[in-house]
C-alpha cells in the first residue's frame, strides 16, 4: 500500500516540476531576449559616433532602453516569484518525504527486531518440521519466502526514498542559487535604470529650454514624412493603373468589374500573392540584425505627447554599411528618389507591395526580378545622429498594412 503511495507521490512531484520547468523556461527565454535587445540598443543607438548633440533623438533612444530594462525587471520578478513558490512547495514536500522515510525506518527496524527474536526462539527448520502436515509445511515455507521478499522490498524502498530526498534537496539548493542570481540581476538593472533616468531628466531639462524650437522641428519632420508617403501612394496608384491597362489590353477586356486601385492579376501573379499570404508571420526581416525604433500606425510622439505620429511602416535601425534585402520573390515596381537623394524601392509581390525607404546606394533597377533575401541597396547612415535606419512599409494594393504582423518575431 505504501509502495503505491510513493509511486503516485513521485509521479505527481515530477509532473508538477515538469510544468514548472516549462513556465520557467519561457521566462528564461524572454529574459535572454530582453538582454539581447538591451545589448542591441547600446550597440546601435548609443555607440555610434554622433557629430552633433541631438537631444530629441537621445531622449527617444533613452526611453526605449528604459522601457526594455523595465520589461526585463518584470520578467526577472516573475521568474523569482515562481522560484520562491516552487522552493516553498518543495520544502513542504521534502518535510513530508522525510516524515514518511522516518516511519519506514521505524517499521523496518521493528520488523528486523521481530525477525531476530523469532530466529533466536525457533529456527526456520524447526518451524517447518513442527508442521502437522505437508500442506501446513508448504504454507509456512511460502510465508517465510513472502516475509523475506517483503523485507527486501522494504529495504529497497528506504533506499529509494533516501535517494529521492537527496535529489529534492539538491534541486532545492540549485533553485536557491538561481534565485540569488536573479536578485543580483534585478539589482544591477535597477541601478542602470537610475542612471538612465538621471540622464533623461537632464535631457528633458535641455528640451524644455528650447521647447518651441524642438516642436517646430518635429512638425517639419512630420510634414516631410507625409509628403514622401503621399508620393509613394501616388506612385502605387499610377503603377496599378498602368499595369491594369496593359493587363486588360492583353485579355481584350474579358475581365469585368475591376475595382479601382486594385491590381488585375494574372494566374502567376495570383499564385505569388497566395504564397506571400501563406507566409504571413514567417517572412524574413529586411535587415540581418537590428531593432525596431518606431512602430507602425498612429502613436504619441515619445517626447511631446501632444504631437501624434502616423507611421507608414517600421523604423528599423541596424549597423552602418548594412544593406536592405527583399523579404519575398517579386519584381521592382518603381524607385523613388527624394530631394535629399535618398532612394525608396517598391517591390511587387502579386497585389502586395513592400517598400524599402531611406536607401543610399542601389543594387537594382525598375523592372528587375527579385528573389527572397536579395540585397537591393545600402541603407543610408545619418551623419548627425550616426544612425542607419531603414523605413520598411507593406501595402496590399493601396492599403497600408502593419509589417510587424508579417515578419518573424524576434
Structure description:
It is a single chain. This protein has 410 residues and is of the alpha+beta class. The chain has two domains: 2-209, no CATH class; 266-405, Distorted Sandwich (Glucose Permease (Domain IIA)), CATH 2.70.70. It contains six helices and twelve strands. The chain has helices at residues 2-46, 55-121, 124-129, 134-209, 211-250, 267-278, and strands at 291-294, 297-300, 308-311, 314-318, 323-325, 330-337, 343-349, 352-362, 369-370, 375-379, 388-396, 399-401. Strands 1, 4, 5, 6, 7, 8, 9, 10, 11 and 12 form a ten-stranded antiparallel β-sheet that branches. Strand 6 and strand 7 (343-349) form a beta hairpin. 20% of the residues are buried.
Shape: elongated
- Rounded to the nearest angstrom, the radius of gyration is 36 Å
Tally the helices. Answer: 6
Report the sheet-strand fraction. 15-25%
The main sheet comes to: 10 strands, antiparallel
Strand tally: 12
Helix and strand run: HHHHHHEEEEEEEEEEEE
N- and C-termini, Cα separation: 52 Å
Ranges where pLDDT stays below 50 over 5 or more residues in a row are 1-20
Number of individual domains: 2
Look at the helices and sheets and give the structural class.
alpha+beta
Amino acid at each position: 500500500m505504501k509502495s503505491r503511495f510513493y509511486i503516485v507521490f513521485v509521479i505527481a512531484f515530477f509532473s508538477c516540476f515538469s510544468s514548472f520547468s516549462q513556465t520557467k523556461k519561457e521566462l528564461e527565454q524572454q529574459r535572454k531576449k530582453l538582454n539581447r535587445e538591451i545589448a542591441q540598443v547600446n550597440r546601435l543607438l548609443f555607440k555610434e559616433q554622433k557629430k552633433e548633440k541631438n537631444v530629441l533623438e537621445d531622449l527617444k533612444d533613452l526611453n526605449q532602453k528604459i522601457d526594455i530594462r523595465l520589461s526585463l525587471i518584470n520578467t526577472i520578478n516573475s521568474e523569482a516569484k515562481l522560484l520562491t513558490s516552487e522552493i516553498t512547495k518543495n520544502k513542504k514536500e521534502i518535510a513530508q518525504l522525510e516524515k514518511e522515510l522516518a516511519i519506514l525506518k521505524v517499521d523496518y527496524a521493528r520488523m528486523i527486531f521481530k525477525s531476530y527474536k523469532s530466529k533466536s526462539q525457533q529456527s526456520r527448520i524447526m518451524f517447518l518440521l513442527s508442521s502437522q502436515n505437508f500442506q501446513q509445511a508448504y504454507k509456512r515455507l511460502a510465508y517465510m519466502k513472502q516475509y523475506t521478499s517483503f523485507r527486501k522490498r522494504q529495504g529497497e524502498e528506504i533506499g529509494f526514498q533516501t535517494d529521492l530526498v537527496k535529489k529534492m534537496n539538491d534541486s532545492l539548493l540549485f533553485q536557491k542559487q538561481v534565485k540569488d542570481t536573479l536578485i543580483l540581476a534585478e539589482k544591477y538593472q535597477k541601478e542602470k535604470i537610475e542612471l538612465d533616468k538621471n540622464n533623461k531628466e537632464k535631457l528633458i531639462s535641455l528640451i524644455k529650454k528650447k521647447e518651441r524650437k524642438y516642436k517646430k522641428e518635429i512638425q517639419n519632420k512630420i510634414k516631410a514624412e507625409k509628403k514622401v508617403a503621399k508620393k509613394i501612394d501616388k506612385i502605387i496608384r499610377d503603377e496599378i493603373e498602368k499595369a491594369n491597362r496593359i493587363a486588360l489590353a492583353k485579355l481584350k477586356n474579358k475581365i469585368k468589374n475591376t475595382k479601382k486601385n486594385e491590381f488585375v492579376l494574372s494566374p502567376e501573379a495570383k499564385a505569388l500573392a497566395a504564397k506571400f499570404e501563406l507566409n504571413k508571420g514567417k517572412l524574413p526581416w529586411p535587415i540581418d540584425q537590428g531593432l525596431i525604433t518606431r512602430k507602425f500606425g498612429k502613436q504619441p510622439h515619445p517626447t511631446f505627447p501632444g504631437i501624434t505620429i502616423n507611421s507608414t511602416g517600421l523604423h528599423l535601425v541596424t549597423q552602418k554599411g548594412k544593406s536592405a534585402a527583399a523579404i519575398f520573390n517579386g519584381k521592382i515596381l518603381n524607385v523613388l528618389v527624394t530631394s535629399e537623394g535618398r532612394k525608396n524601392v517598391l517591390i511587387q509581390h502579386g497585389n502586395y507591395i513592400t517598400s524599402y525607404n531611406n536607401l543610399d546606394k542601389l543594387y537594382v533597377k525598375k523592372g528587375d526580378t527579385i528573389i527572397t533575401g536579395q540585397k537591393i541597396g545600402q541603407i543610408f547612415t545619418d551623419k548627425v545622429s550616426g544612425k542607419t535606419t531603414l523605413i520598411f512599409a507593406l501595402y496590399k494594393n493601396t492599403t497600408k498594412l502593419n509589417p510587424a504582423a508579417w515578419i518573424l518575431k524576434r
